[in-house]
Amino acid sequence: MDSKCISQAVISRLPRYYRYLLELKEEGYERISSNELSKRMQVTASQIRQDLNNFGGFGQQGYGYNVQYLYEEIRKILGLDREHNMIIVGAGNLGQALANYVEFEKKGLMTKGIFDVNPRLVGNTVRGIEIRMIDELEAFIKKENIEIAALTVPKSKAEEMAGLLVKYGIKGIWNFANIDLHTIGDVEVENVHLSESLMKLSYRVNNRD
């Protein structure tokens, strides 16, 4: 099925399937039914079957899903069966925290460089990854075949920097700036607003009674 026809809601659930299937693998499960998976994920069995049918189904009636096979198939769908080279633009606290997160590499997302405009940071490293200046960005993206950029710059600089990344050939922008960026041409954008997630939690805590 053409990926353009699959809803964003389905796509947003795929990483959860991947995470739960990894846990099942580590616990030694060989197969699992949609009903059993639904209890773990708090998603209805019907929703699980509908979601997976977008990609071919993968299950057998009366047998359920082969955990290893389904894990590998979702891994392929998410593009995690190959490596993606990534850079971080913005070497502040958040940028450095992302660079220190080793779990990305286990999923094939390889951080190759960190970029900033502060000359005092030149040559510093985070987990062995060198901080470079923005004027090296274009050449580095081309040389290292960078596909993804994590953008952790201030809101006022986000659109300008996103424009440069698009111009230099980036395929996807993971945007942490406090502004919504939109898909530009064929460059995909994922906007992440950490404060919104915290505010949703605040609402639930405030209204729990």
Produce the secondary structure layout.
Elements: H1 8-26, E1 31-32, H2 34-41, H3 45-53, E2 65-66, H4 67-77, E3 84-89, H5 93-99, H6 103-106, E4 109-116, E5 125-126, E6 129-133, H7 137-144, E7 148-151, H8 155-167, E8 172-175, E9 188-191, H9 194-206
Parallel strand pairs: 3-4, 3-7, 4-6, 7-8, 8-9
Antiparallel strand pairs: 1-2, 5-6
Short structural summary:
The protein is of the alpha/beta class and 209 residues long.
Question: Would you kindly provide a written description of the structure presented here, covering whatever features stand out?
Answer:
It is a single chain. The chain has 209 residues and is of the alpha/beta class. The protein has 2 domains: 3-77, Winged helix-like DNA-binding domain superfamily/Winged helix DNA-binding domain (Arc Repressor Mutant, subunit A), CATH 1.10.10; 84-196, Rossmann fold (3-Layer(aba) Sandwich). The chain is built from 9 helices and 9 strands. It has helices spanning 8-26, 34-41, 45-53, 67-77, 93-99, 103-106, 137-144, 155-167, 194-206; strands spanning 31-32, 65-66, 84-89, 109-116, 125-126, 129-133, 148-151, 172-175, 188-191. Strands 5-6-4-3-7-8-9 form a 7-stranded mixed beta sheet, sandwiched between helices. A two-stranded antiparallel ribbon has the order 1-2. Helix 1 packs across helix 4 (67-77) and helix 2 (34-41) packs across helix 3 (45-53). The protein is globular and about 60 Å long.
